[in-house]
Amino acid sequence: MRNPFIDFTIKATILLGIVFFIHLGVLRTWNFPVFDDRIVLCYAVNFALIIIVFGSLYLLKEKYKSQLGFLFLAGSFLKFTVFFIVFYPFFKMDNHISKLEFAAFFVPYSIGLILETFSLSKWLNKLD
C-alpha cells in the first residue's frame, strides 16, 4: 500500500506548480506585474501549510481518528492566522486590498483547500 502522505505531497506539488504557472501566464497576458503582490511567497506558504496540515493529520490518524475533522478545521484556522500575520499587513499598507493581491493569496489557498478536502475525504473513507 502506498503512503497517502507521499501521494498527497506529489499531487500538491504538481497541482500547485501547474496553477502557479497558469496564474503567472494570466498576469502576463493581461499585462499585469507578474511577480508583484508576494505571489511566490503566497504559493510557497500555502504549499507548506497544506503539507504541514495533511502531514499532521496523517501522523495523528490513529490516536485522534474521531477528531480528524476538527483537526482539519484547526488547520484551516492556522492558514487564516498565517494570512493575517504574514500577508495582510503588506496587502493593507495602502488601505486597499486589490484584486491581484487577493488572487495572489486566495488562488493557491483555494486550490490547496480543495485538494486537501478531496484527498482527506478519500483517505478517511479507506480508514473505515
From TrEMBL:
Membrane spanning residue stretches: 12-32, 38-59, 71-91, 103-124
Keywords of this entry: Membrane, Transmembrane, Transmembrane helix
Protein name: DUF6168 family protein
Top-level division of the source organism's lineage: Bacteria
Pfam families the record matches: DUF6168
InterPro entries: DUF6168 (IPR046166)
